[in-house]
Amino acid sequence: MFRRLVSHGCRNLTEHISSISRQPIERGGFGIIYRGRLGDGTLVAIKLLSQRGRVSSRSKCKLAKRASLESYSWSKCNHPSIHELLGVARYRGHIAMISPWMEFGSLPKYISRHPDVDRLQLAHQTAIGLAYLHLSGTVHGDLKGSNVLVSANGVAKLTDFGSTKLREHTLRFTTTTSCDSFSVRYTAPEVIEGGPQTMQSDVYALGMTILEIVTGEIPYSNVKVEAAVLYKILRGELPPRPNNQHLSSNSAGDKLWSLIAVCWSTKPSDRPDSAAIRDQLEIMAIEARRT
Predict the structure, then answer these.
(1) H-type helices in the chain, by residue range?
(2) For the chain: N or C, fewer Cβ within 10 A?
(3) How far is the C-alpha of 52 from the C-alpha of 208, rounded, in Å?
(4) Which is nearest to 206 in space by CA: 148, 290, 121?
């Protein structure tokens, strides 16, 4: 599978890694992130897909396929609002995905450390990235604040295509079962009920992510138990409108809340497409800077 990835255009960086952290810098879901450096001095993130506990040989094979598919999907993305994949490498028996190290980290970390940052601009940049993916025929499948990184010049970049589906590009691996996982607070009801990830479910997640950006809190932040969040989603209970700087009871706040709320429409077909959200957020960000 590794050779096939390289033959399909992924750069082999195995021999270019000069150093790597002894312990993972971050863990979460199926991913483990190490920090490393390439021979030319470039600081990089080295991502391995993994499962906790004992893993059967069959599960290892499925995980390798998932890593291959994610790497291939990622390699086809080339846009300023998408975190760049520099290449792949063999590391500790895994396929590792190599990308530039983002010192500012994820959106939630960046916002907590820079509370006065332009939130609408970050939301707009996130929507730009998603609109690019959708125009390319790609479903992200796990959009949330922690899967958006911030570059050194303050640009939001989408990453972690854990559930990506490509329509244009196909790499011939046999997938016997799904390894997908989802983040309940950002997941559309139809997906929780067993439906497929779609561009419309991405838009639902984008609405939740915009809410997270402008409030600095995860959706349903007052509900601590995931099962309780799941129950609320399936009952059609949406997060209440907060009263903060961006969502206060004025014309600008009403427009933004209406945009967020329509992303959560019960019928997927009633949700706007990501390009429309991108365009509306651009207008809102410009108007906010004028006031």
Answers:
(1) 2-7, 57-75, 107-113, 119-135, 189-192, 199-215, 226-234, 251-263, 274-290
(2) C
(3) 28
(4) 148
Give the list of residues 6+ apart from residue 233 with CB closer than 8 angstroms, or none.
Answer: 184, 187, 189, 192
CA–CA separation, 95 vs 1, rounded Å?
A: 9
Measured CA angle at 264 (ends 210, 272), to 5 deg: 85
Per-residue pLDDT of the chain (291 residues; tens, 9 = 90+): 667 666 666 788 888 999 999 899 887 655 789 999 999 999 999 988 754 445 555 555 665 565 556 666 776 788 999 999 898 898 877 888 899 999 899 999 999 999 999 999 999 999 999 999 999 998 999 999 999 999 999 999 999 865 454 443 334 333 333 334 458 999 999 999 999 999 999 999 999 999 999 999 999 999 999 999 999 999 999 999 998 889 988 999 999 999 999 999 999 999 999 999 999 999 999 999 987
Active-site amino acid positions: 142
pTM score of the predicted model:
0.85
Q: Check: CB of residue 141 under 8 Å from CB of residue 165.
A: yes
Please count the other Cβ atoms lying within 10 Å of the Cβ belonging to residue 80: 13
Q: List CB contacts of 243: < 8 A, sequence separation 6 or more.
A: 249
